[in-house]
Design goal:
TIM Barrel, 12 strands, alpha/beta, globular, 8-stranded parallel beta barrel, single chain
C-alpha cells in the first residue's frame, strides 16, 4: 500500500511546460494525478500560472524536486525551503519527493551526483532529511537515483538507501527504471534488489525511458519510450506491492501526444490487472 495522499492513485504523468497547451485539448481520463517540479513553478505568474491552475482544478498533484541537493556539504537553502513550503501549502500538495544525491558545490552542478555509500554519509543525509521534513511539516520521499560510477563504498546501494530511510524516517520514491539501469550497469539482480528495499515506505513509483550506450551501459535519459524490460520490472513490482501509484516521466524528445498518453494507458491497464489480485483499485 502506497503512502501518498489518499487522492493520489492510478497512473500519473509528469507535467512539463511543453505539454501545457497540447494536454488541454486531449482526453485525460486515464490520468489519475500529475507530478511537477516545484522549482519550475515557484513565483510564476500570468498565463503560465493560469494554465497550471487549469490542471490543479482537475488533478491531484505530487511534487518532485530538482535542487534540494540533500547530500551536499553546504547548508540547506532555508529561503528556498520556505518558498517550497508555501508552494506546497498553496497548491495542497501532500507528497513531496527529491533525489538521494547532491547537485551543488558552491553553485549548481545541473546533474544528480551519486553519494558515497558510507556510514558517515548516512548520518549527514538523514539529519538533513529530518530538517527538511520539520520545515515542510511533511514526510518526504527520497528517490533511488541512477549512477554510473561508485564514489566510495563501505555499504551497498541497497544498504545505503535502506539505512537512510530508516534513520530519517522518510518515505521512498521507487524509480523502477533506475533499478533496471543500475542493475545492468553495476551487475546486480533487479528483482532481488527490489524485493529487499523498504517497500513499506514507498510513496509512489517512477517509470521512464533510457538510452543504451553499450551492452553493459544504460543511460537514464527520460527522453525515450519505456523499454520492454522496464515494463516487465514494473509488473514484477506490482506482483510484490500491488498497483502502486506510478508516474510516467518524459522530459524532452516528446513523441506525438497520442503515443505519450498510450504509455500512461499502459500503466493504467497493468494496474487494473493487479487491482483485483490485491484488493485495491487503480484508476480506470
Amino acid at each position: 500500500m502506497s503512502l501518498t495522499h489518499e487522492s493520489v492513485k492510478g497512473a500519473g504523468l509528469g507535467l512539463r511546460r511543453a505539454l501545457l497547451g497540447p494536454l488541454q485539448e486531449a482526453e485525460l481520463d486515464r490520468i489519475g494525478f500529475m507530478e511537477l517540479a516545484p522549482e519550475n513553478w515557484i513565483g510564476v505568474g500570468g498565463r503560465l500560472r493560469r494554465q497550471l491552475g487549469w490542471y490543479r482544478e482537475r488533478f491531484p498533484f505530487v511534487c518532485h524536486g530538482l535542487s534540494l541537493s540533500i547530500g551536499a556539504p553546504e547548508p540547506l537553502d532555508q529561503r528556498f525551503l520556505q518558498r517550497l513550503k508555501s508552494f506546497l501549502d498553496d497548491h495542497q500538495v501532500e507528497c513531496f519527493s527529491e533525489h538521494l544525491s547532491y547537485c551543488s558545490e558552491h553553485g549548481h552542478l545541473y546533474d544528480l551526483m551519486p553519494l558515497p555509500f558510507l556510514p558517515e554519509t548516512v548520518d549527514w543525509v538523514a539529519s538533513r532529511i529530518m530538517q527538511v521534513q520539520d520545515t515542510l511539516n511533511r514526510r518526504i520521499a527520497m528517490e533511488n537515483i541512477s549512477y554510473y560510477a561508485s564514489v566510495a563504498t563501505e555499504m551497498s546501494e541497497l544498504e545505503f538507501i535502506t539505512e537512510v530511510c530508516e534513520r530519517a524516517d522518510c518515505l521512498l520514491l521507487l524509480d523502477v527504471n533506475n533499478v533496471h539501469v543500475n542493475s545492468v550497469n553495476h551487475g546486480y539482480d533487479a528483482d532481488e534488489f527490489l524485493r529487499a528495499l523498504p517497500l513499506e515506505r514507498v510513496a509512489y513509483l517512477h517509470i521512464a525511458g533510457h538510452h543504451h550506450e553499450a551492452e553493459d551501459l544504460i543511460v537514464d535519459t527520460h527522453g525515450a519510450a519505456v523499454a520492454d524490460p522496464v515494463w516487465s520490472l514494473l509488473r514484477r513490482t506490482y506482483d510484490v506491492m500491488g498497483p502502486v501509484p506510478t508516474v510516467l516521466e518524459r522530459d524532452f524528445n516528446f513523441p506525438p501526444l497520442a503515443e505519450l498518453l498510450a504509455e500512461v494507458d499502459t500503466i493504467a491497464n497493468i494496474q487494473n490487472e493487479y487491482a483485483g489480485k490485491n484488493g485495491q483499485h487503480a484508476a480506470a
